[in-house]
Amino acid sequence: MLASASASRRQILASAGIAAEVMVSGVDESTITEPDITRRCQALARLKAQAVADQLRDQLSVPDRSPAATPAAPVGAPTLVLGCDSLLEFDGQVLGKPGDAATATARWRRMRGRSGVLHTGHAVVEVGSGRVAEAVSRARVHFTEITDEEIAAYVATGEPLQVAGAFTIEGYGAPFIDRIDGDPGTVLGLSLPLLRRLLAELDVPITALWR
Questions:
Q1: pLDDT tens by residue, the chain, 211 residues
Q2: Would strands 177-181 and 80-90 be described as parallel, antiparallel, or unpaired?
Q3: Its pTM surpasses 0.85
Q4: Bridge-based pairing state of the strands 93-95 and 115-126
Q5: Which residues, including other chains, have CB under 8 Å from residue 86's CB and lie 6 or more apart?
Q6: Side-chain half-sphere CA neighbours of 51 within 13 A
Q7: Are 98 and 41 in contact (CB under 8 A)?
């Protein structure tokens, strides 16, 4: 189960053979005000995963340490919930979704020709046992020398308004990213190598989730 409405995260899982159902957590992200970016994105990922796990536990009446599967999981696989959250660290500031065109425009004028570090928190909750495995992945993103006209056109697409840091590495935003140091999946919102390691902590091989 994916505790996120992100189409990118769902597509990443699908590309790895994992058909995840989506249940949006409904968590109010403004309640987490931790100034440290690593702890903040990890706390948000955990909060989202736990909220959905609690809902599933109530709905399915899963007893502790039960290996029962959700409809999205292969037979015999445990019920798992994945929560993720991404934030950009730039000039010592923590940047989430800009929310409006003016903020997105101002950010791009600051970021062009420079770089920032995208942090993505991951939390996997095993619903039956309540066990949690969590970690944060990081990747440095180098932005191109985008012009004012290109910024205006990009912001006008609406794409950067609801994504962490006001950019994506797919879609309209791809031409404005010079390079990425690290796992591109981190920037898309879900690192598959990290997910594999977290699943291993819960004694679940990622191959057990293949459809």
A1: 999 888 899 999 999 999 999 998 887 777 788 889 999 999 999 999 999 999 998 876 645 444 333 444 555 568 999 999 999 999 999 998 999 999 999 999 999 999 999 999 999 999 989 999 999 999 999 999 999 999 999 999 999 998 989 999 988 999 999 999 999 999 999 999 999 999 999 999 999 999 8
A2: unpaired
A3: yes
A4: unpaired
A5: 41, 118, 119, 120, 121, 164, 165, 186, 187, 189
A6: 19
A7: no
Task: Select from 121, 124, 120, 119 the least CA-distant residue to 198.
Answer: 124
Instruction: Let me know how long the chain is.
Output: 211
* CATH class of the domain defined by 7-209: alpha beta
Cβ–Cβ < 8 Å for 145, 75: no
Q: Is residue 85 annotated as part of the catalytic site, yes or no?
A: yes
Which of 28, 36, 85, 181 is catalytic? The answer is: 85
